[in-house]
Amino acid sequence: MRYYVLFFLLLISFKGKGQINIFPYIENFDSINIPEIPRGWQTTTNRLSTGDFATISTSANSGSNAVISTNARIEQHLYTPYIDFSKKYADSITFFERRSASHDADLLIEAILKNNSQQPLILSDTFRNSNTTSYIKRSIKLPDIISGNDSVKFRWRLAGNGTGTTGTLRLDDICIYASYLYDLKIDGMITEPTYPTIGEDVKIGGIIKNTGLAPLENTYVEIYLDINQDEIPDIAELLSSQIITETILPEEKIRVWCTTLPKITSGTKRIIITCYHPDDQNPRNNAGMFEFYASLNQLTIVINEIMYMPLSGNAEYIELFNTCEDSIDINGWKLTDKINKDTWTEADNIANKPCYIRPKDFIIIANDSSIFNQFSYLSNNDFMVIIRKNSPALNNTGDYIILTDSFGKVMDSLYYYTNWHNPYLDDIAGRSLERVNPYLNSNDPNNWCTSANPQGGTPGMENSLYTKFENTDSPVLIKPNPFSPDGDGFEDYTIIQYNFREKIGLIRANIYDARGRLVRTLVHGNPVGQSGELIWDGYNDDHERVRIGIYIILIEGLTGESNKCKTIKSVIVVGTRI
To answer: Which of 242, 261, 544, 567 has the most CB atoms lying inside 10 A of its own CB?
Structure first.
């Protein structure tokens, strides 16, 4: 799962005309028309009747505008709107200042309280030219006397005691900070499971943090599923609402489980979480928007056929197969391979727009349109073929292939080898590797072999080697049985499904002939689960095709707890087509 946070930017609320009561209060002078100053701000007219401070669109610290004053010999003031610190603790002011070399007047920052008294806000009484023409950051700790006042103005006062008449002073990015007595914040979303997959029930909750200075209880929490993707909580989208009676202490976070989404479908889900408390003084952080991705289970889409050594003039291709009952969008998915041990190829997306693989259907990714020459039936619109000139270059000596979804989750991966081909073929050029069964292990060499189709492959169609298996509760199920490993594409493999009654840590599986002689070791000491599948291709350990006849498979499992050996035995018949 991947999710990211998008917080609602609510409009700054004002208490009375032009009064600020939401923090941090930030003024960067970018949202107004020059030479005007922001609404609620004031300046003296000692130098110009239109105002001593004005905005300018050159040499801003950030954005487009800054505020400027000229002439160090004339006293000039710049005032903020009234700021409400009631039930709040005043913290600090920061701003950026830039001067030309000839602007040498002293600068003082003062607070004008409700009774018009003046309280200097800095330990030293002035800021002076810093002998640099770049912006410097000024930081001022606000004294406790400011806290609790409901009407405070801040003033930047140029003393007018300089010598230059043409020097300039610029101010930008003014920030005023305060701590709220009561302030709740939506601080995140939680899901269970953390990385949900399609079809699962997903429990959803929120993380609420008390960023204020006093404890709060009885908080109202709502969760919405943003179905129409308009980023606005709508009553029709409400999933859950509840009152959290738990007391939340300052700086404490609590996790609140709110609702469950049953059997989620594929794709991105957008969740809006809100909280409300009547005493909360800062509504800007009372809502959060989050997204989580309902991913597919691994091996929902699998690599099903690989043409890595085409004949001259023909195309390499990889076939994917959708094993599930739903159409799957592979927009943003990637197929990559390795250049060497530590380096992956840079791969383009398989598709850059919605591209759905139908249930139990195929899609072919080829590096050249010549695939239509070799397999002309693919020109039919019923087949899905994507031509990607920069598809992974498949090595003739073996290569690693990895399939990832649009969020980077590995859906299937394998390393193919040339010895996965039929050992009796003198020339494998122009013959694809086909998967025996798409539901079995991608890296099992017995699950791959050379296509038996005369055209050299079966892109877009059921593999010529495809062998079915069925889920069973029996100790062993072997299908097909008999089977005929003669390379004609019909029942060339058999699948052995085993099911032990106890938990198994390791298994060994051997095939013996009718006289009890060992013919083939399928697995030896492999860590496995209680049940699983094995594939036999009808060859012995010397890569020779066995004779027609009766064979015995013996599967031995070592239990993980009691360290006892459990056995399953059955008969396999190797035959031939008549």
So the answer is: 261
Task: Give residue 353's domain range.
Answer: 301-450
Residues 350 and 222 in one domain: no
> Do 41 and 173 share a structural domain?
yes
Tell me, yes or no, whether 113 and 153 share the same domain.
Answer: yes
Residue 2, in any domain of the structure:
no
pLDDT tens, 132-183?
A: 989 999 999 999 889 999 999 999 999 999 998 999 999 999 999 999 999 9
Domain with 562 in it: what CATH number? 2.60.40.4070
Helix (H, G, I), strand (E, B) or coil at 112: strand
Q: Is the pTM of this model over 0.70?
A: no
Please tell me the predicted confidence (pLDDT) of residue 365. Answer: 95
* Nearest by Cα to 204 from 175, 238, 171, 252: 238
C-alpha to C-alpha distance for 298 and 293, rounded to whole angstroms: 14
Domain end, chosen from 156, 179, 202, is at: 179
Tallying the residues shown for the chain, one arrives at 578
Longest dimension (CA), the chain: 114
Give the tens place of pLDDT for each residue, 36-94.
Answer: 999 999 999 999 999 999 999 999 999 999 999 999 999 999 999 999 998 899 999 99
How many degrees, rounded to 5, is the angle at CA 337 between CA 333 and CA 338? 140
